[in-house]
Amino acid sequence: MTKALKIPLNIPLTSEDMELGLKVARVGLGKVDYRTNTLRCDPLAAEFFGLDAGVEVRREELHARIHPDDWPQVKEGLGCLLSPDDPLQVLDMTHRILVPDAPLRWVNARKQVSYDAAGMPVEGVFAMVDITAREMAEQRAQFLIGELGHRAKNLITVVSGIVRQLARHAPPEEVVDRLLARLAALGRNQEAMMHDAGSRFGLREIFTEQVRPFAGAARERVVLNGPDLMISSNAAQILGMVTHELATNAAKYGALSEETGRVVVTWAVEGDARPDFTLAWVERGGPAVNPAAKPGFGTQVLTKLTEASLGAKTEVAFEAEGFAFRLRAPLKALSSD
Questions:
Q1: Where are the alpha helices (DSSP H) in the chain?
Q2: N or C: at which end does the chain have fewer Cβ atoms within 10 angstroms?
Q3: What tens digit of pLDDT does each residue of 142-157 get?
């Protein structure tokens, strides 16, 4: 017969109830033996770290799977927890886990240690929860906030450029209509990126709508080559931001700032077992490229945002013939929100 356990609010729970509750909450557990410098993980904690459940391993084996950028902070916290002079009651930390051939994982871990009469650590119990989705959402929100301000500044610059071009080249009686047409195209850019979540977008349409205001009447200046893939709203928003940033920079400093310049945008799917999506934005015929002394927010959109949201590898190249940007990401990252 199972003995009932008492918790606050006087709710009687059996050990089976407690075990089921941990499974529902997806809490991974582990136990450390400091006398032998080993630990064991339950199935969920073992899954987090890529270890075998219930198998005794050295503490160093688990520590080696903590992200190297997070390890110094974790090591410091563990040092405080295990200090015989002034030990912490409970260690509460958030860190990343790196496991070979597995996606990056964020966890929140809490740990408590028992000590002997001399104040030395004897055993420890740790519990952890996967918070990867929350961390990725927070990172994406931070990028979106920054992008909003950055995009507003870019929008003012683009509109100002449009007005100046129209004032120089358009007949006075046509300025208003042409300006409204350009502003409508910019509005379509915003709408394409802020579409309802859960929808699917044609990739070619995303690219077409993003470059339309910058190419103007000379559509042949921007060449689009690639299959019309259907992608998630998240991927559409990210790639829309990237294309907007590239087109804005091309119009301000690159190939689209001169009448002889042109841009070739090429995308494809490569590989069979684990296919990748590849994208190349190549500018030719523009002014001499001049690498920025310090990467700005625009560079972060092209690199860090795509890496965090799509797991992409990127290359920003200031080649002799012109600017180029290349991206490679798992194809499955473009289909999930």
A1: 15-25, 43-49, 59-63, 71-81, 132-169, 175-193, 203-215, 233-252, 297-300, 306-310
A2: N
A3: 877 876 776 677 567 6
